[in-house]
């Protein structure tokens, strides 16, 4: 923080007995809330980078910790000359010592292509990485936010899903390194809160899309957009009747910040309650990019949830948060970013 002003006219005033708010005492005028030191693990991913952009706009000092397995340095390169920004190449599976006020723990591969590539590493990131960051929070007294996932609900038997639903998850399936890993991360987070009095927050994130996503990460929106731009058939798995909800990344980031700054532990569903089948999504992508694009059906993947839709009543009531950007508004913004990157691939 910058040095306090030395002028006697400054910010300190002594109030007399008749001032508003009660009797005599020391009051302060004009003092801004001091900036925070914030760490964002996984901050070079597309959600993390969007979060960093928002936090930097608020005068905070931000440290990004990322091992660049799925994150890209290009996502945060525009901050590198800022003295209040630091970028550390580090894997959260190993401990790290920092002095910060808040920890946004995003580090973990989040797409099936990436987390199935090395499932043991994925669950180590969810368990050991979360333990390390919770231990850091305990030692330095930082507030901790875990980004969990709608995958904790598995292939749900309740629709839409409320935070009170316990889920229907296959504990030994090909997706369990991520699904059960995040469930364990939530357990650890709540145990540190109950047992060590750590201030914690839990966000259960539903399908999110936007600029800076990995182009070939296997998630449905990025798949369809990249395939349509490359003039390849859009691949729909199964019969295409599976449903998902899609939120634009800036809406999610607003929700994460509202949760961190609020007084409620969580968990909170953060997602757009609008619902699309895979076929409906493919048609929206076609309309946005290329009406002549074709659709190709393939066998479904194992343990793919049949339906996914958040009940966000809790977030609306307690965080005063809900998504603002519709799929038809947000998708063109993502397409612009992907088009530039696909063209650079081909040049």
UniProtKB/TrEMBL annotation:
Keywords: Decarboxylase, Golgi apparatus, Lyase, Membrane, NAD, Transmembrane, Transmembrane helix. The keyword Transmembrane helix applies. It is found in: Golgi apparatus, Golgi stack membrane. Residues 40-332 form the NAD(P)-binding domain. CDD domains: UGD_SDR_e. GO terms for biological process: D-xylose metabolic process; UDP-D-xylose biosynthetic process. GO terms for molecular function: NAD+ binding; UDP-glucuronate decarboxylase activity. Pathway: Nucleotide-sugar biosynthesis; UDP-alpha-D-xylose biosynthesis; UDP-alpha-D-xylose from UDP-alpha-D-glucuronate: step 1/1. Its cofactor is NAD(+). Its main location: Golgi. It is a single-pass type II membrane protein. InterPro entries: NAD(P)-bd_dom, NAD(P)-bd_dom_sf, UXS-like. Its EC number is 4.1.1.35. One of its GO terms (cellular component) is Golgi cisterna membrane. Belongs to the NAD(P)-dependent epimerase/dehydratase family. UDP-glucuronic acid decarboxylase subfamily. Catalyzes the NAD-dependent decarboxylation of UDP-glucuronic acid to UDP-xylose. Necessary for the biosynthesis of the core tetrasaccharide in glycosaminoglycan biosynthesis. This is UDP-glucuronate decarboxylase. The gene is LOC109705976.
């Amino acid at each position: 923080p910058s040095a306090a002003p030395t002028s006697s006219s400054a910010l300190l005033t002594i109030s007399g007995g008749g001032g508003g708010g009660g009797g005599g005492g020391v009051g302060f005028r004009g003092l801004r809330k001091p900036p925070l030191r914030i760490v964002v693990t996984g901050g070079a991913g597309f959600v993390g980078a969007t979060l960093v952009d928002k936090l930097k706009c608020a005068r905070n000092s931000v440290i990004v910790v990322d091992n660049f397995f799925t994150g890209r340095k290009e996502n945060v390169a525009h901050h590198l000359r800022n003295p209040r920004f630091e970028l550390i190449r580090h894997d959260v599976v190993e401990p790290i010592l920092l002095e910060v006020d808040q920890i946004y723990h995003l580090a973990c591969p989040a797409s099936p292509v990436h987390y199935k590539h090395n499932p043991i590493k994925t669950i180590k990131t969810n368990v050991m990485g979360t333990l390390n960051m919770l231990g850091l929070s305990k030692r330095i007294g930082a507030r901790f936010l875990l980004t969990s996932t709608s995958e904790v609900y598995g292939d749900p038997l309740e629709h839409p899903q409320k935070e009170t639903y316990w889920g229907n998850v296959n504990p030994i399936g090909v997706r369990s390194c991520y699904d059960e890993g995040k469930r364990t991360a939530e357990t650890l987070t709540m145990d540190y809160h109950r047992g060590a009095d750590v201030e914690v927050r839990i966000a259960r994130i539903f399908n999110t899309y936007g600029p800076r996503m990995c182009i070939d990460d296997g998630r449905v929106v990025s798949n369809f957009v990249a395939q349509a731009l490359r003039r390849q058939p859009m691949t729909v798995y199964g019969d295409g009747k599976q449903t998902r909800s899609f939120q634009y990344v800036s809406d999610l980031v607003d929700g994460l910040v509202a949760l961190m700054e609020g007084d409620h532990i969580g968990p909170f569903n953060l997602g757009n309650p609008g619902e699309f089948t895979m076929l409906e999504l493919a048609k929206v992508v076609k309309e946005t990019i290329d009406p002549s694009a074709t659709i190709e059906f393939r066998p479904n993947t194992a343990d793919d949830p049949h339906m996914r839709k958040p009940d966000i009543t809790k977030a609306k009531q307690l965080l005063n948060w809900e998504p603002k950007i519709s799929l038809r508004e947000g998708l063109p913004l993502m397409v612009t970013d992907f088009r530039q990157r696909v063209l650079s691939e081909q040049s």
